[in-house]
């Protein structure tokens, strides 16, 4: 009798173990497989700003890095500045990389091509895919502030949904992984002063970019102040720089 009871208990234990094992295997099978990590490749581009390094994968552009290896070139409308690949190789064949190169070549080209830029590449940097204030600021800047236009930190904070976050906007701009295409150089003080760029190392570069865009944008219209509820592309030129905006410029890209 005792042997029968022990045999029955053993059978139940084996059945329970098999059930747990099957459940575990089923859960593992149902678990979605993670996408393989990106393998960004790099292209070097010689521009009027010096060398740019572009990082991109098949899904989109990860970063544009301004190396600051030379001073910005003199603008000459009769001879548009050159923008050419100096170190590409297989990376040039990545579709989103090609789109990034073509966009930058048009941006640094003559005024006609700059006035009608090709579609920008897709973005694939984690900071731009996350649901964060930084991502919202950068997408708002990209979607709304066009060539020949500028916006203050305060106004950009309003447009991004947090009027009190001018300083946080400065931090978001500092973390911009794709400058030029996401135009952090167009974020200025409320007074109209350009403010620092790249922690003060790129002040001349920022002024060059703003002057380049004023020269090349033939569609530009006067910029006027709008009400806070508006989401027009504007710059507030009436107010003095606020302390939080000055602090924000410490973080400017």
Explain the layout of strands and helices.
Blueprint (H helix, E strand, L loop, with lengths): L1 H29 L10 E7 L2 E8 L2 E7 L17 E4 L7 H13 L3 H4 L11 H4 L3 H12 L6 E2 H7 L6 H9 L12 E2 L14 H14 L26 H6 L5
Parallel strand pairs: 5-6
Antiparallel strand pairs: 1-2, 1-4, 2-3
Helix pairs in contact: 5-7, 6-7
Explain what you see.
- With 253 residues, the protein is of the alpha+beta class.
- It folds into 2 domains: 41-114, no CATH class; 126-251, Winged helix-like DNA-binding domain superfamily/Winged helix DNA-binding domain (Arc Repressor Mutant, subunit A, Orthogonal Bundle), CATH 1.10.10.10.
- Helices cover 39% and strands 12% of the residues.
- The protein is built from 9 helices and 6 strands; from the N terminus they run αββββααααβααβαα.
- It has helices at residues 2-30, 95-107, 111-114, 126-129, 133-144, 153-159, 166-174, 203-216, 243-248, and strands at residues 41-47, 50-57, 60-66, 84-87, 151-152, 187-188.
- The chain has a 4-stranded antiparallel β-sheet with strand order 3-2-1-4, covered by helices on one side. The chain has a two-stranded parallel sheet with strand order 5-6.
- A hairpin with a 2-residue loop joins strand 1 (41-47) and strand 2.
Overall shape: globular
What value does the average pLDDT take? 77
CATH architecture of the largest domain: Orthogonal Bundle
Radius of gyration: 26 Å
The total count of helices amounts to: 9
Under CATH, the homologous superfamily of the largest domain reads: Winged helix-like DNA-binding domain superfamily/Winged helix DNA-binding domain
Structural class: alpha+beta
What's the β-strand tally? 6
User: How far is the N terminus from the C terminus?
Assistant: 82 Å
Structural domains: how many: 2
Spans of 5+ residues with little confidence (pLDDT < 50)? 218-253
Largest sheet geometry: 4 strands, antiparallel
């Amino acid at each position: 009798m005792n042997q029968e009871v022990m045999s029955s208990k053993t059978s139940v234990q084996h059945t329970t173990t098999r059930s747990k094992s099957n459940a575990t295997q089923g859960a593992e099978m149902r678990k979605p497989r993670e996408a393989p990590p990106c393998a960004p490749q790099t292209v070097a581009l010689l521009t009027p700003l010096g060398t740019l390094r572009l990082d991109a994968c098949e899904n989109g552009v990860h970063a544009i890095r301004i190396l600051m290896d030379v001073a910005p070139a003199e603008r000459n409308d009769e001879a548009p500045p050159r923008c050419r690949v100096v170190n590409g190789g297989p990376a040039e064949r990545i579709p989103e990389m090609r789109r990034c190169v073509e966009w930058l070549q048009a941006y640094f080209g003559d005024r006609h091509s700059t006035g009608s830029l090709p579609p920008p590449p897709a973005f694939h940097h984690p900071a731009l895919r996350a649901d964060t204030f930084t991502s919202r600021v950068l997408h708002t800047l990209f979607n709304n502030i066009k060539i020949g236009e500028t916006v203050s930190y305060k106004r950009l904070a309003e447009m991004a949904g947090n009027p009190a976050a001018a300083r946080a906007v400065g931090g978001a701009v500092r973390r911009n992984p794709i400058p030029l295409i996401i135009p952090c150089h167009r974020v200025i003080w409320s007074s109209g002063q350009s403010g620092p760029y790249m922690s003060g190392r790129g002040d001349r570069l920022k002024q060059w970019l703003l002057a380049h865009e004023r020269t090349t944008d033939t569609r530009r219209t006067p910029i006027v102040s709008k009400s806070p509820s508006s989401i027009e592309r504007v710059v507030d030129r009436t107010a003095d720089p606020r302390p939080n905006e000055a602090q924000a410029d410490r973080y400017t890209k």
